[in-house]
Amino acid sequence: MVCEHRDTIKIKDVEPGSKGCEECLKSGDSWVHLRICLTCGHVGCCDSSKNKHATKHFKETGHPIIQSYQPGESWKYCYLDEEYLE
To answer: Per the structure, how many domains does the chain have?
Structure first.
């Protein structure tokens, strides 16, 4: 299967909205790993984190593709196709 949503992400790099999970920083909570939305730059915590803010962001906005925001990682994931990219 080939993800057709790649065209929805910006050609240039998005600017991260924060240096950590935006919602966890506001509430004083912690996270495990970070993901960045490649549509708008929202930084949210992964599904191994108790709040799962990256997935919540997808469900609220429909922005389909995230990228790992961990140092040394560059993989991407499409929520709509449930497929890892690159």
So the answer is: 1
